[in-house]
């Protein structure tokens, strides 16, 4: 009976959103706070590496850009004993690369509180300090959990017991990984749901904050030229690639707990995939967008083992590069993949029969992330050898959108060559592109969930990958060894070729063209 009542309430909320969409969406940015509120930003794990390298530089950038609330304070929280000055000198201000003239004014707003991660009493002690800063104003609190996933729930319980805002909002930012498979992810979600409402939680996937990923909806739905051809009638395949030209750099012990599928494919690449493949939302509201992402994920088949290639980078003695197993932090004989290529199939009218190729790896020949949409071959017999058209969205580095097409080679010849219409951002726009974390933390402060992962999105992504992850681990499947600095295993290219992707050997996009 309770389940039916809960489902009925959810349906009522959904109906209300469709009846009154204007109440739930505005294209104007929301204010992050005025003088009537004090916003406390608490970085739990404030003495750690993630906070030092990412969280504090992000908050500093937002401060310098005038995008933090007018009245705010920043608090580091961790077990390590230190005073404010030591915290500011050794943890907050060590990785700032811009605006040196504003560093001191920012550091004055940063404070530190030491306490156990699982102690509600310690968070209650922190809350008293926050109330002093609030000084009678409404107090909003953002808890950024820059901590290992193993203590998410303990910290969340302690925050709930002693740290929640009494007069304003409380929001909690959670970093990936969100579990190891469907079961552990569901357990984590269930535990957190006992403590916080879904709209209080912000599951952060920093790839959703990247400029070109944010641009996907604009590219698709603000240009009438693309929507009519965004389907199986015109598109042969879509490839989403993440490549790194470095290894694990001494962090192999951490990476070995997850592997490339959990670390990159199941989250970063699947988030890009859902934005590329989803239907148009009713409104540009977070819930409408996430509804469409969930719909396309539900139409996907589980990953089939025949559609998967896994690899592990080996050494390149000539260039002095070590293999994955040479990293002293990696367990001896580890079978954890550092490379994976998988083919995703969608069972819906738009995409049935179109292979979505997800490819990611470390120790490869270059660093890049891109979306490559390859169209069908020219059906005309006039230019049957012409290369296929491609629309490429370069996510990083050197953000760009370019379209490959065929033209006559200049001069007294009829030869057909491939060239491009090229929008390279740094050539076209004289603008600073924000770091992905800057956009995401700014959106948390505004209460905008658009770029954050909803619980049902998470469940569907894990549903697709859990069976194949269990098969790899239970059957101890050996990854194919590939040379450091190569394109990866040849078997991956064969798999992609089997699904009709044609690699143009004669064309290379040049960022300097």
How would you write the strand order of the largest sheet? 14-13-12-11-7-10-9-8-15
Report mean pLDDT, rounded to a whole number: 88
Biggest sheet overview: 9 strands, mixed
Content of β-strand: 15-25%
- Given as residue ranges, the uncertain stretches (5+ residues, pLDDT < 50) are 17-29
How many distinct beta strands? 15
Number of helices: 15
The shape, in one word, is globular
What is the N-to-C order of secondary-structure elements (H for helix, E for strand)? HEHEHHEHEHEHEHEHHHEEEEEEEHHHEH
Helix coverage percent of residues?
A: 25-40%
Structural Rg: 24 Å
Report, as a whole number of angstroms, the end-to-end distance: 65 Å
Briefly note the structural class of the backbone: alpha/beta
């Amino acid at each position: 009976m309770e389940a039916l009542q809960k489902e009925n309430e959810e349906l009522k909320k959904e109906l209300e959103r469709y009846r009154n969409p204007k109440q739930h969406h505005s294209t104007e940015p929301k204010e992050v706070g005025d003088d009537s509120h004090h916003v406390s930003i608490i970085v739990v794990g404030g003495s750690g590496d993630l906070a030092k390298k990412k969280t504090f530089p992000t908050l500093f950038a937002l401060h310098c850009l005038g995008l933090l609330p007018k009245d705010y304070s920043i608090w580091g929280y961790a077990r390590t004993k230190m005073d404010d000055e030591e915290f500011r000198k050794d943890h907050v201000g060590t990785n700032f690369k811009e605006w040196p003239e504003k560093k001191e004014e920012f550091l004055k707003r940063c404070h530190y509180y030491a306490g156990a991660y699982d102690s509600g009493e310690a968070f209650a002690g922190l809350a008293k300090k926050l109330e002093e800063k609030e000084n009678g104003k409404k107090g909003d609190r953002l808890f950024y959990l820059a901590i290992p996933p193993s203590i998410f729930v303990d910290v969340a319980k302690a925050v709930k017991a002693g740290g929640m805002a009494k007069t304003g909002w409380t929001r909690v930012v959670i970093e990936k990984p969100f579990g190891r498979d469907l079961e552990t992810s569901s357990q984590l979600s269930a535990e957190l749901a006992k403590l916080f409402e879904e709209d209080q939680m912000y599951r952060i996937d920093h790839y959703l904050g990247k400029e070109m990923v944010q641009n996907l909806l604009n590219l698709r739905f603000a240009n009438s030229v693309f929507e009519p051809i965004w389907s199986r009638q015109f598109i042969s395949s879509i490839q989403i690639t993440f490549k790194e030209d470095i290894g694990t750099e001494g962090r192999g012990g951490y990476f070995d707990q997850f592997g490339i599928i959990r670390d990159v494919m199941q989250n970063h690449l699947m988030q890009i995939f859902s934005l590329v493949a989803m239907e148009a939302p009713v409104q540009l509201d977070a819930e409408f967008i996430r509804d469409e992402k969930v719909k396309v994920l539900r139409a996907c088949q589980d990953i089939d083992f025949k559609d998967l290639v896994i690899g592990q980078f080996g050494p390149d003695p000539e260039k002095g590069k070590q293999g994955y197993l040479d990293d002293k932090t990696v367990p001896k004989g580890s079978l954890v993949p550092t490379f994976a290529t998988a083919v995703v199939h969608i069972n819906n009218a738009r995409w049935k029969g179109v292979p979505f190729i997800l490819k990611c790896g470390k120790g490869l020949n270059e660093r890049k992330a891109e979306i490559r949409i390859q169209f069908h071959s020219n059906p005309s017999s006039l230019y049957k050898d012409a290369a296929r058209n491609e629309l490429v969205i370069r996510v990083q580095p050197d953000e760009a959108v370019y379209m490959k097409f065929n033209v006559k080679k200049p001069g007294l010849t009829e030869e057909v060559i491939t060239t491009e219409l090229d929008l390279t951002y740094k050539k076209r726009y004289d603008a600073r592109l924000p770091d992905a974390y800057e956009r995401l933390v700014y959106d948390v402060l505004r209460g905008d969930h658009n770029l954050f992962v909803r619980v049902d999105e998470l469940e569907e992504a894990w549903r697709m990958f859990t069976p194949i992850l269990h098969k790899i681990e239970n059957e101890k499947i050996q990854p194919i060894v590939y040379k450091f600095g190569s394109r990866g295993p040849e078997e991956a290219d064969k798999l992609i070729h089997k699904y009709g992707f044609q690699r143009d050997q004669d064309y290379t996009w040049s960022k300097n063209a």
